[in-house]
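--- STAGE predict ---
source: upstream dedup step, 1 unique chain passed
mode: sequence only
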Amino acid sequence: MASGLNTEVQFLKGVGPRYAKFYNKIGIFTVEDVLLNLPRRYQDRRNIPPISEAKPGQMVTVKGTIRRIESRTVSGGRVILKAILEDRSGAITLTWFNQPWVRKQLEDSSGEIIAFGTVKAGQYLDEIASPEWESLGEDDGEEFAKIFPIYPLTEGLPQKVARAAAKAAIETYLGFMVDPLPSGLLKSQNLRDLKWSLRQIHMPDDEASQKLAHKRLAFEEFLYLQLELAMRRAQTKQEMGIAFPIEDLIAGKEIELQHALEQEPSSRKEKVTKGVSQPQDLFFSVESERRSGVPLWNQVHEMLPFELTKAQRRVIGEVFDDMARPFPMNRLVQGDVGAGKTAVAAACMLAAVRSGYQCAMMAPTEILAEQHGKSIRKFLEPLGIRVELLIGKQGAKERKLAGEAVANGSAQVAVGTHALIQEGVEFQNLGFVVVDEQHRFGVLQRKALRDKGIGNPDVLVMTATPIPRTLTMTLYGDLDVSIIDELPPGRKPIKTHAKKPFEREGIYRSLRELLNQGRQAYFVCPMVSESEKMMAAAAEELYDTLRMQAFAEYRVGLLHGQMKAADKDVVMESFRKHELDILVATTVIEVGVDVPNASVMVIEDANRFGLSQLHQLRGRVGRGDTQSYCILVSDPKSEDAMKRIEVMTQTTDGFVIAEEDLKIRGPGNMAGTEQSGQLDLKVADMVRDAALLEVARGVAMKIVSSDPLLEGKEWEMVHQKLKQKRSDVALITIS
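--- STAGE serialize ---
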């Protein structure tokens, strides 16, 4: 038997081998694990209202006596269990789905129980579905009127056992805990020490003490996260990168190619000079030479057929400043749908090419890569800059020619999908990398592209998915962040309307008027499943209904993820050319499809989609200068679904929507499973504790600025904790 904090959980009072096995199932093996298994919420039993005062929509604690228990089996063998809980004022139904064992637990109880959950309106009595509950024994009278912690547990491990174990750990072993945070930091941030905080988080004297304990523990959790990001960022700043001659370019000075290669080994210089001194395309050479010495901003204005917004100019300036510095750029550019991120990327790639380097732009899908390829060519090729597209569907000859142009340097820009990072694709002097919708690429994919460059290329990450500030500080805290918070002039806000299914005929009537005016429309099928096959089937059913019934006189097309790439391209190109009036699609059109003439987006069963996805889908219209509409057809039942529809009809601001999405779904679901190791927060809540996250970030940056490797004695335990967390994340990743 180990001693102190390493004592096995089975030796805590009330646990034993019987419950230790359930603790082990959820990763709790020692006394220290019990102390750090914190309550996820609390029940305040000091004031429990009569059952008659519980109203639908409220989360309540009710106390009473079980009067009747009924269970029935429904289709699929599922069991629905109902119990009537009664007090002197009234009664309420408690319902459990597919948990038949609860019946025996209720029958074995004293009959008097306490239950917690959300009240819903019922046909005869109001109801609490899947409540948390426990039996009230004869000895519970004196201990009843308290704030009770509710722990994250597993089946077979009762809350009573968890509370008893935590109490025993506090009373017997808390003295072994050593606070990793130095006293000076605690004092400067007005935080309580670890032992006091753990006692009050498990056994709060009152609500105020519990909140102080939460603040201390949440701050520590945020601090580790922000220190890790700050150290990573500081390390990047110490690496040598490319110092692009931006000031000379802006001033209109001619740039010698040798200037751009000063930091490269002689063998690399010879390779680069050889490739660039023998251009294969006379037009590109002449056009590029003609603009030699023209100030950079003049060239930017020449290549763009529109005026940049103030936000675009600001962001380009921020990127230019980074490019001029001698360490690698790592910058995230956020911009809502239609904010003009591609134009910003083109301006920055122009600066890199004029400095003597190649650029690469990687997109997550072939449709988006082709769209970027067309846009970048339109911007850069008139200036004498050759752009090549590299995607999987290209024929062998076309792919070979494009690859050769990139390898020998005659093509200064390569746009593509993950095909860019495949073996056999070589760059001559890649110095600037753009990654679009980076959350769709893995870390190794991004690194593989960067490794094809000279030294440490500058990296510009772009996303059209607005990210809440709190998530930006955690997921992308090692990046500098720029936000394009302004739409181009002339863009009309999309009008969004929520409609019920029985209102479809009115929707179709209005849509026919717009189609007759020459407009086009999208119909997005309901997301019936995460399965591509089931989504494709739903799209095919909707397609048949529209083309044979509601819109038989119009040209209707179908696009979904199960189609062959070539067939998808044919359909999309037909829609772009207005050879189709209506496109029925799955969420395959969520990102990157740009058809300015499409002015209506109808989303069927909109309540099945998340806020971020609804916003991305809506962004497929409103690309032209005519008024566009988004129709959300739904009949939401849950509170969250109703809130999502309400938010969509009230705002088109992607950042407002992202903040609301964070409140509804929480950070883990927004970030995706690939970020789960980074967002393993047990105490802190990024919505509720956003201000504390800001404080922790500032503290972390200050610490790292004076002690980049945390070598000071006062940070010894903090450094150990960080190394342990890195090890844990690595194990999670490997397994």
